[in-house]
Specification:
The chain is mainly β. Helix content is about 0%, strand content about 45%.
C-alpha cells in the first residue's frame, strides 16, 4: 500500500537491523570502537526501514528543532523530552516536546515534524493577544491535517483553551469561562483537556470543575462533537457488574479515544460505588471491563485487582484494548474487544518459545495499539535471559517487529557503527497507521547500557501478505530478485486487495499479471526472467494501471476483484477461487534493454 501521509520535513532513511550470531540469534552489535559482545536472545526482530524523525541526541541534524535555527531539542537521559505520539489513520502525527530554551518557552507542539506552536509565543486563537502556556500531553490530528491541543495562556482570566486548527484556520472548541452548550447555565472552568480531533474537524474533550448551576458532584463532563457523552453524578453507564446502577464519578486524563468518524468512543473512569470495583472501561456508554470482576474469556479465578486496569486504547477500526493485572495472583494481561489477548506465560507470538514474563518489569505489558485494518501491536517484557533484549513489540501475534537492544544506524551511512541501540520503550508511546507505519518514541542507549537520549522513529512494520509466494525469480539489474506481495483481505466480497512489487530497478515501467493457473516458462519472449503463470493470463495495462518504479524501485496497484483482466474479457473473483499474480517490468543489463519478472503469489479467496 502506498503511504499517503504528508511529511513536512524530509526524513532520514535509516535501516534498523539485527546482527546475528552463528546460531541465527540476534546480538547486540557493538561499534568498531568497542570490543565485540555477543548476547543471544530467543526471537529476532523483523522490522523494515526505519526513519529517524526527531531526537535530542547532541550532534545529530535531527536534534535541531525544525524552523528554529540554533534551537535544539532539550538534551538529556529522561523519558519525557518527547512525549507520547498520537496520529491519524493516514499517517499524520502530532507530539509535544521540550527544547533547550528557558522554562517559560521551552514546550513545543509539532505536527508531522513541524513546530505549530511554542510556549511563550502569541496564540493565534487569541488574536495574538495572549501567549501560549504549557501543553497537555494529549493532542490529536486527523487525516486532513487538522489538529487540536490543550493549553493555558498568560491571559489575566479565562486562560484555558481547547485549541483547534481546521483547514489552516486557528480557533478553539472550548475556553474557560465560556458557556457549555450541552449544559445551559454553566461555563467551563480551568480544567479542560484530553482533546480528540474528528475527521469533520469537530473535537471531543473532558472538562472538570465546571461553574454554574450544577453542584460540584456533577461537574466532570465528557463532550464529543458538541454532544454530552457522560456527566459525573448524572450518567449511569449500562453493563455494570451484577446489574449495579452506579453514577459516573470521574474520568482518567489522556484515556479518552474516539474513531475519526465519531461512531465509537472509549473512556476509562470511576463509578461512585465500592472502591474495589469502581474502575471501569466504557465503550460507547457501556461498561466493557470492570475492576473486581473476572477478565472476560479468560480462565482466571481471581478478579481484576484494585487499581488493576492500567491503560486503555481504541483504534480506528473500533477495536478496544485494555491491560492490567489481577488480585491475589497479580497476573498481568491484555484484553482486546473483551477477549483475553495475552497473559504471562503465553508465547510472545504463535509458535514462539519465548514467553511474556514480569520478573524484571512488574506490569509485564507496556503497549497496545492498532489500526483501521485490525492490525495490532503489543509490547511486553519476556523471559529472555538477556536482560538487554527482553522487551519486544509484536505485531498480529505473528512476529517481533522491534526489540530492546536492536542497533540503529543514526547517521544513515548504512552501517551499524553509531553505538546506538533501542533502550527503553515508553508506556504507550506509539501510533500505528493504516500503511503499517509505526511511530515510536524510545530511549537510545550505547553498548554499555548508558542512555544517550530519546528518538522519535517511524518504522515500516510491513503488512502481512494474504498470498503464498512461489516460483524462482531471476536477479534483475539491482542484483536482487523482484518480489510481489498481495495485501488486504482474502474475502472476495471485501474487494480489498493491493498488489505490490518491490526490489526492482529504479524508473522502470511495469505491470501486473493475473491467472488462475500456475506455470513456469524461462525467458518468455526474450525476457531475462521466469514467467510463473500459465493458462489464461490477464494483464493490468488499462488506463492508470501501467506503473513506474520511481526512485524507490517499487510499484503497487489497488485491483478491482470484480474486474480482473483476462484475454476474453474481465471477470469477477469468486469465493473459493485461487488466483495467481506476478509482476513484469522493464530492465537494462550491460546497456541492453530487456525485461524481467518478480516471483509470483497465490491467493485463496474466501
Amino acid at each position: 500500500m502506498i503511504r499517503h501521509s504528508l511529511s513536512l520535513i524530509p526524513p532520514l532513511l535509516v535501516p534498523l537491523a539485527t546482527a546475528s550470531a552463528q546460531d541465527g540469534s540476534p546480538t547486540r552489535n557493538v561499534n568498531a570502537f568497542s570490543s565485540t559482545v555477543t548476547t543471544p536472545v530467543i526471537a529476532q526482530s523483523t522490522s523494515g526501514t526505519v526513519e529517524l524523525l526527531l531526537t535530542n541526541i547532541v550532534g545529530l541534524p535531527e536534534s535541531q528543532v525544525p524552523g528554529l535555527p540554533g534551537v535544539f531539542f532539550d538534551p538529556g537521559t529522561g523519558t519525557t523530552d518527547f512525549d507520547r505520539v498520537y496520529g491519524s489513520p493516514g499517517g499524520n502525527w502530532i507530539i509535544t516536546a521540550f527544547a533547550d530554551l528557558p522554562s517559560d518557552e521551552d514546550e513545543l507542539v509539532l505536527v508531522n515534524g513541524t513546530v505549530v506552536q511554542r510556549e511563550g509565543q502569541p496564540g493565534p486563537w487569541t488574536g495574538g493577544t495572549e501567549n501560549a502556556g504549557s501543553f497537555d500531553r494529549r493532542c490529536d490530528v486527523n487525516d486532513s491535517g487538522d489538529f487540536t491541543f490543550a493549553t493555558n495562556t498568560d491571559g489575566a482570566a479565562n486562560d484555558d483553551y481547547i485549541v483547534t486548527n481546521v483547514g489552516g484556520a486557528w480557533g478553539f472548541a472550548a475556553r474557560e469561562g465560556d458557556a457549555i452548550g450541552p449544559l445551559p447555565g454553566n461555563t467551563y472552568d480551568d480544567l479542560i483537556d484530553s482533546p480528540i480531533m474528528l475527521a469533520s474537524g469537530a473535537v471531543g474533550f473532558s472538562a472538570d470543575g465546571i461553574d454554574g448551576a450544577v453542584p460540584s458532584t456533577q461537574d466532570d463532563i465528557l463532550v464529543l462533537d458538541g454532544t454530552l457523552l457522560l456527566q459525573e453524578g448524572v450518567s449511569i453507564p449500562a453493563g455494570q457488574a451484577a446489574g449495579a446502577m452506579e453514577f459516573m464519578e470521574n474520568f482518567d486524563l489522556s484515556d479518552f479515544f474516539a474513531t475519526e468518524d465519531g461512531a465509537n468512543w472509549l473512556i476509562q473512569g470511576d463509578l461512585t460505588g465500592d472502591s474495589a470495583s469502581d474502575d471501569v472501561v466504557i465503550l460507547n456508554g457501556n461498561v466493557v471491563l470492570q475492576e473486581g470482576t473476572i477478565v472476560p474469556g479468560s480462565t482466571f479465578t481471581d478478579p481484576i485487582d484494585f487499581a488493576g486496569i492500567f491503560a486503555v486504547y481504541l483504534d480506528e477500526g473500533g477495536n478496544w484494548f485494555a491491560r492490567g493485572d489481577n488480585d491475589v495472583s497479580s497476573v498481568d494481561w491484555i484484553v482486546r474487544n473483551g477477549t483475553l489477548l495475552k497473559t504471562l506465560g503465553d508465547p510472545i507470538f504463535a509458535g514462539a518459545t519465548e514467553v511474556f514474563d514480569d520478573t524484571t518489569f512488574a506490569p509485564g505489558f507496556f503497549m497496545h495499539i492498532g489500526n483501521s485494518f485490525g492490525d495490532y501491536i503489543i509490547g511486553g517484557v519476556t523471559n529472555s535471559v538477556n536482560l538487554d533484549a527482553n522487551a519486544v513489540l509484536v505485531k498480529n501475534d505473528e512476529r517481533v517487529i522491534c526489540r530492546e537492544g536492536d542497533p540503529v544506524d543514526l547517521d544513515g551511512n548504512g552501517m551499524l557503527d553509531d553505538d546506538a541501540f533501542i533502550g527503553t520503550f515508553g508506556d504507550d508511546d506509539g501510533h500505528l497507521d493504516d500503511d503499517g507505519m509505526l511511530y515510536l518514541v524510545v530511549q537510545i542507549e550505547d553498548a554499555n547500557g548508558d542512555v544517550r537520549g530519546q528518538a522519535v522513529l517511524r518504522m515500516d512494520t510491513g503488512t502481512p501478505s494474504i498470498g503464498t509466494n512461489y516460483c524462482t525469480a531471476v536477479p534483475n539489474s539491482t542484483g536482487t530478485t523482484g518480489v510481489i506481495a498481495a495485501i488486504g483481505s482474502a474475502m472476495a466480497s471485501d474487494n480489498d486487495v493491493t498488489l505490490i512489487a518491490t526490489d526492482l530497478p529504479i524508473n522502470a515501467f511495469g505491470f501486473f499479471l493475473a491467472s488462475q493457473v500456475q506455470g513456469f516458462v524461462t525467458n518468455p519472449g526474450g525476457s531475462a526472467g521466469n514467467l510463473c503463470l500459465a493458462g489464461s493470463i490477464g494483464r493490468y495495462v488499462g488506463p492508470g494501471q501501467i506503473q513506474t518504479t520511481g526512485l524507490e524501485g517499487e510499484f503497487s496497484l489497488v485491483i478491482d476483484l470484480t474486474n480482473v483482466p483476462q484475454p476474453t474479457g474481465p471477470v469477477s473473483v469468486m469465493a473459493g477461487e485461487n488466483w495467481n499474480f506476478q509482476a513484469w517490468h522493464r530492465d537494462s543489463v550491460g546497456g541492453s534493454a530487456t525485461s524481467n519478472f518478480t516471483d509470483a503469489t497465490s491467493v485463496d479467496f474466501l
